[in-house]
Structure formats: structure tokens, C-alpha cells
Design brief:
The protein has ten helices and two strands. It has 239 residues and is mainly alpha-helical. Strand 1, helix 6 and strand 2 form a beta-alpha-beta unit. The longest helix is centred in the last third of the chain and has 26 residues, at 172-197.
Length: 239
């Protein structure tokens, strides 16, 4: 019986090699229902630095991408730390930004000390996060901490400035009416809710909630509602 010896220098783990064989022999082929752990195993072992199966490596990358869909409000499964490490190691750029966002908005990465306003501290206290993971490398942990700080710095002035203060490109009488409505309603409808649920740390989700509010019922002109929702959607993309 022919014997194939896998060099130990390749660093192939036994369970990853078993997953590869199970796929190649069609015992447990890849599918849309393949668990993340198996996808990660085959991604590693099929990579150019291990056994180098180019077609399979591309196929399993597609499986990973399908697990982390993009969109205005990303809803990602678990294994965020492992997924970030994989997308970094194998340069899977299409989903890495979304994984970064999901990870930093659900995990407590301590950023450098800063002066915080009472509102900023309240928002941080209100948000329940998991503790910083130990599975990430130090550079990735540092990167996540900086991203979290950057998100807060970017979104805080947007959140705590009534949208009506940034005038719509509408006739003057519409502008004044929109400004009044935003000035009267922004605190009760947006800021208080964001403080209670840590919305400053979840800008994409918070912007989506703002978009879904019935602003027309609050007195905004339809044209102003459309324009502001477009602006908030653009801001989601920026974040």
C-alpha cells in the first residue's frame, strides 16, 4: 500500500487533515451547512503554505464569505475572532471590514485612556460586551482597540447633534420646519435611546433605528425624510 508522508514542517494539524480527507472522499463534502470549524480546518490545510489545493482553497473561501454576509446592518454568527484571523491570514478582503465591525462592537477592547463626558461614559456602561478575546494576536487586538476608539470619535458628534442642525437642501420654509422638528424630537427619540442601549458603540445599527423612525408622523416633510434617510444610509456605508 503506497504511503504518503506529510512533512511535519508544514504544521498540519491532524483534525484539519482528517477534514480534508473527508471532503476529498465525499464522506463529508463542503456545503452551505458546513460548520465554521470544518471550513476553517479545510481553509488552513488547503492553503498554499500547507498542502496547496488551489481550487479547493477558493471553494472553501467562498463558503467562509457566505457565512458573513455584508449589508447595512451586518448580522454575523459566532467565531468572529477566528474569522478575523482567517481573513487576515488569507487576505479575504470582501468580508474583513464587516467582521472587524461586528467584533469591535460586541467585544470589550480597551482603548487608550481619554477624557470622557458623562454621556459618553453612560453609553459605555449601558453596552454589554464580551471580554477581550485571547485568541487574537496582539497586533489584531491593538487594531481592534484603535478601530473602536475611531468609531466612537467619528460617530459621537453625529449622534449628539440634532440632524436638523445640518440643513436639508430644500426650500427655506421646509428647512426651518425640519430644523424645529429635529430640535424638539432628537433628544427623546434618538439620544435617550442611544444612551440606554449603548448606541454610540453601534453606529450602523443606531443609524438603522433612526432611519426606521416615523419622521413624517413627527412633522417632517416627505422630501426631508427621504433626504435624511439617504444621508443616514451613506453614513452607514462610511462607518
Amino acid at each position: 500500500i503506497p504511503t504518503v508522508i506529510v512533512p511535519s514542517a508544514l504544521g498540519i494539524r491532524v483534525e484539519n487533515f482528517v477534514s480534508l480527507l473527508e471532503h476529498l472522499y465525499h464522506d463529508i463534502p463542503l456545503s452551505s451547512k458546513t460548520p465554521f470549524t470544518r471550513v476553517a480546518s479545510i481553509l488552513h490545510v488547503s492553503s498554499p503554505v500547507q498542502l496547496d489545493f488551489p481550487h479547493l482553497h477558493t471553494l472553501v473561501q467562498d463558503c467562509l464569505v457566505a457565512m458573513f454576509p455584508s449589508g447595512p446592518v451586518p448580522r454575523h454568527p459566532g467565531y468572529l475572532e477566528e474569522a478575523l484571523a482567517l481573513t487576515t491570514a488569507y487576505k479575504i478582503e470582501s468580508i474583513r471590514k464587516g467582521i472587524y465591525y461586528s467584533l469591535v462592537t460586541t467585544t470589550d477592547f480597551e482603548a487608550e485612556e481619554r477624557t470622557q463626558t458623562t454621556t459618553w461614559r453612560s453609553a459605555r456602561t449601558a453596552l454589554s460586551k464580551t471580554r477581550r478575546p485571547d485568541t487574537l494576536s496582539c497586533p489584531l487586538q491593538e487594531r481592534c482597540g484603535k478601530l473602536m476608539a475611531g468609531i466612537v470619535d467619528h460617530f459621537t458628534p453625529i449622534l449628539f447633534t440634532p440632524a436638523g442642525m445640518i440643513l436639508c437642501l430644500l426650500p427655506q420654509r421646509h428647512n426651518m420646519a425640519c430644523t424645529v422638528v429635529f430640535g424638539n424630537k432628537w433628544m427623546s427619540l434618538v439620544i435617550q435611546s442611544a444612551i440606554s442601549d449603548g448606541g454610540v458603540y453601534k453606529p450602523v445599527e443606531t443609524l438603522e433605528c433612526i432611519k426606521q423612525l416615523d419622521w413624517a408622523a413627527e412633522g417632517l416633510f416627505p422630501a426631508c425624510v427621504r433626504e435624511k434617510r439617504e444621508e443616514w444610509t451613506e453614513e452607514q456605508v462610511v462607518v
